[in-house]
Design brief:
Blueprint (H helix, E strand, L loop, with lengths): L4 H8 L5 E5 L3 H9 L7 H12 L8 E6 L1 H4 L9 H7 L3 E5 L4 E3 L11 E3 L5 H11 L3 E8 L8 H20 L3 E8 L7 H21 L8 E2 L15 H15 L6 E4 L6 H12 L8 E6 L1 H11 L6 H19 L10
Parallel strand pairs: 1-2, 1-10, 2-3, 3-6, 6-7, 7-8, 8-9, 9-10
Antiparallel strand pairs: 4-5
Helix pairs in contact: 7-8, 8-9, 9-10, 10-12, 11-12
């Protein structure tokens, strides 16, 4: 019997589990590898992704993995394709389908030029191919910079319309859309300003999703936390949790299957502390509050690996530890003492 998008969405936010974002494009994975002085070759990319995907017991904490187009087509050293490998472990394969950003019409690239996300051309055909390759969910990221003037209403509308169109086409292909409107942490804005912008972005996004006829119970939302800019004074995890849950209760429909936060430039510990604070309050909310982290699951793993085969086992232990800590945060059971 074919699983419905609702079944898949529920499995993606299963209790205690979250999503690994391993969807770095070729240039982005190149930056990660450069950080540990490893050459950006296909062989090294496959070796690193294989290290992550074959880590023993990650299926206890990871429900799904977002991959990049190239990764979805690749196989590990035993010849088994990455989607098949993940599926055999009960982990749902996913795919990033947006094609990056481009300067928005009318914005000035030399100043604070706003960017929209592209990739709708040929999306239906790509999704059909991805489905055959094993992908059961997809991801599209739209970004919004904060300043006193930004984001503009025009950009919010453009990104929200495209997110809605993407989500609709995904569901037509029996693929669960992860809708990712990310209000960026860059800058020195306050948590109050982030609240205001996040609320507006989510409000418009859900209006467009409803207007396009997207089934919200077959959607997973991947938002930023409501958090001050990186150059501003940091708020306590309790403040981040209160502001984030308050914002979502005001604008996110109850029907949405679940919420998987992005880490968005937070450290591994910070991403755990903030997620833990949200899940350990008595505040009632209708959604699972989970995670879809990239750097916040991988940063220390890369440092432990350093591109060396003899470090693989140790790097996998580090990665498993991060998955476990983040899973505990997702269940409201995390404490900094557990890091040791």
């Amino acid at each position: 019997m074919q699983e419905t998008i609702q079944d898949i969405a529920i499995a993606m936010v299963a209790p205690g589990k979250g999503i690994l974002a391993a969807d770095e494009s070729t240039p982005t994975i190149g930056k990660r590898l450069a950080g540990i002085e490893v050459e950006n070759t296909e062989e090294n990319q496959i070796k690193y992704r294989g290290l992550l995907f074959t880590t023993p017991e990650i299926e206890k904490y990871i429900s799904g993995v977002i991959m990049y187009d190239e990764t979805l087509h690749q196989s590990g050293k035993d010849g088994v394709s990455f989607p098949e490998l993940l599926k055999s472990r009960g982990i749902i394969p996913g795919i990033k389908v947006d094609m990056g950003t481009e300067f928005f019409e009318g914005s000035d690239p030399s100043a604070d030029g706003e960017k929209y996300t592209k990739g709708l051309d040929g999306l239906d055909e790509r999704l059909k191919e991805y489905y055959k390759l094993g992908a059961r969910f997809a991801k599209w990221r739209a970004t919004f910079s904060i300043s006193d003037e930004l984001p503009t209403d025009s950009l919010i509308n453009k990104n929200a319309e495209d997110l809605a169109e993407y989500a609709f086409v995904c569901q037509q292909n029996n693929i669960v859309p992860i809708v990712e409107p990310e209000v960026l942490m860059d800058g020195d804005h306050t948590i109050e300003r982030c609240f205001e912008v996040t609320k507006q972005v989510l409000q418009v996004t859900f209006e467009k999703l409803k207007n396009r006829g997207v089934q919200l119970d077959g959607v997973v939302l991947k938002p930023n936390m409501v958090i001050a800019g990186q150059d501003a004074q940091k708020d306590t995890p309790e403040t981040v949790a209160d502001m984030t849950v308050k914002c979502f209760r005001e604008v996110v429909p109850k029907d949405v299957s679940g919420i998987v936060f992005l880490s968005g430039g937070q450290t591994e510990r910070q991403a755990c502390e903030n997620l833990n604070a949200m899940n350990s309050t008595d505040e009632m909310h209708p959604w699972e509050l989970s995670f879809s982290y990239g750097r916040a699951l991988q940063a220390s793993t890369l440092k432990a690996w350093l591109g060396k085969d003899e470090n693989i086992k140790n790097a996998q232990e580090v990665f498993l530890h991060r998955c476990k800590m983040t899973s505990m945060a997702r269940s409201g059971e995390y404490s900094g003492d557990l890091e040791n």
